[in-house]
Amino acid sequence: MRFNPKARLDRGQVRDSGRGGGGLGGGLGRGGGRAQRLPIPSGVGTKGGIGTIIIVVILYFVLSRCLGGDGGLGGQLGTGAGGGPEMDASQVEGSGRYDECRTGEDANNSADCARVAVVNSIQDYWGDSLEGLSGTPYQPAVTHTFSGSVGTGCGNATSQVGPFYCPADGTVYLDTTFFDAVLERQLGGPDGGFVEYYVIGHEYGHHVQNLLGTMGRVRTQQGPESDAVRLELQADCYAGMWARNATSTDDDSGQALIAELTEEDIRLAIEAAEAVGDDRIQEKTSGRVNPEAWTHGSSEQRNRWFMTGYQSGDLSACDTFSAASL
After folding, report:
1. Cβ–Cβ < 8 Å for 313, 245
2. Residue 312, number of CB atoms within 10 A of its CB
3. How much is the pTM?
4. How far is CA 32 from CA 88, 129, 157, in A?
5. Averaged pLDDT for residues 239-253
6. Less crowded by CB within 10 Å, the N or C end of the chain?
7. Rg (alpha carbons) of the chain, rounded to whole number
């Protein structure tokens, strides 16, 4: 991926709290709910809990506790209820990590600045398209990078959780060491810039689900046809929709943000999706595959639904909840 050198980056969409601190804390969650620890899905664990890999879903029963609900999320996460607070950089004392990220040229020369550009691109895409596709206006979400641990509206989290979206504070959380330390070295995933961009696109897919009220449809948490798997595969599909339209996204002045997205970029996204399939993780960590413990979908499913979004660019094509077969 190449960024347009003339593009201006919006650094306010990405924050960094450095190592072992910061975050929004439990008190900022929607509904004022008491913060709970993030869940560790069963069936994919490895030593130290690191195998909860990628894109942890805050499952239905945890969400309702985190948001102070009684088990029904429809009213708190539904359409019109919003997906989180408006961005307010004063809520987090930043580390200054992104202070020098100003242009697309900076993004071409810095992984940190590239992250800012990608977040800008994803949010420009959904900001321009979501209301027309669904009738629901898009609300921006912050990406919060950290190292070691972080406090969130869903409780305290460590690097072992992997990248995740917290619907209680409407924020994407990302420990950037995950990609080398876990995805590449432990799971055998690919190395390359677009791998991270696919993950960020997936997490913003969860934000879109939050805005649309889709998270309230999750009732079953495990199994190859479970609601949890449907939620994850839909987020993969939404990531594919953004990738299809990435080169059409603009900065605030109308300058293109992304100059080029190549077939190699898409190949890396597909390989990353396959690397974090439940079957692949189970095989690597326990030597056997147990579909009844799946929470995210198989490698083949994750590949296929990402490509469904990428090839169709159609929100309705990503309706995994209505799909007879995943």
Report:
1. yes
2. 15
3. 0.80
4. 17, 30, 19
5. 97
6. C
7. 18
Distance linking the first and last C-alpha atoms of the chain: 30
Rounded distance between C-alpha atoms, residue 33 and residue 99, angstroms: 33
CA distance 77 to 92: 24
Distance CA 291, CA 296 (A): 10
Residue predicted with more confidence, 94 or 266: 266
Query: Are 215 and 209 within 8 A, CB to CB?
Result: yes
Which class for 49: exposed (0-12), middle (13-18), buried (19 or more C-beta within 10 A)? exposed
CA 62 to CA 165: how far, in whole Å?
13
| Rounded Cα–Cα distance for residues 267 and 290 (Å) | 27
Reading the block at residue 41, the tokens are: 């899905």
Residue 193 corresponds to which tokens in the numbers above?
């810039």
**Taking a C-beta distance cutoff of 8 angstroms, is the pair 163, 172 a contact?**
yes
Using the structure block, give the residue that is written with the tokens 């990220």. Answer: 101
pLDDT in tens, 24-38: 433 222 322 222 222
User: Could you tell me the two tokens for 95?
Assistant: 């580390």
The number of helices, as runs of H, and strands, as runs of E, in the chain is 10, 8
Which pLDDT band holds residue 20 (cuts at 50, 70, 90)? low
Q: Has residue 69 got a pLDDT over 80?
A: no
Which residue type is seen at 103? T
Dihedral, CA atoms, 160, 92, 86, 310, nearest 10 degrees?
-40
- Per the document, the length of the chain is 326
Interior/surface letters 116-128, b for 16+ CB within 10 angstroms, e for the rest: bbbbbbbbbbbee
Written as six digits, the tokens of 39 are: 């869940």
pLDDT in tens, 146-191: 988 899 999 998 877 889 999 999 999 998 887 765 555 666 655 6
